[in-house]
Amino acid sequence: MRQTMPALLLVAFALAPSAAEAQFALKGGLSFGSATESAYLPDLSTKTGFAGGLSFGLPLGSVVELRPELLYVQKGGKLANDDSFTLNEINIPLLLQLDIPITGLMPYVYAGPQGELELKCTAFDTDCVDTSSFRWGAVGGVGIRLAKVISIEGRYNWTLSEISSDINSKPRTILLLVGFHFGARQ
Question: Where is 117: in which H helix or E strand?
Answer without folding.
Answer: strand 106-123
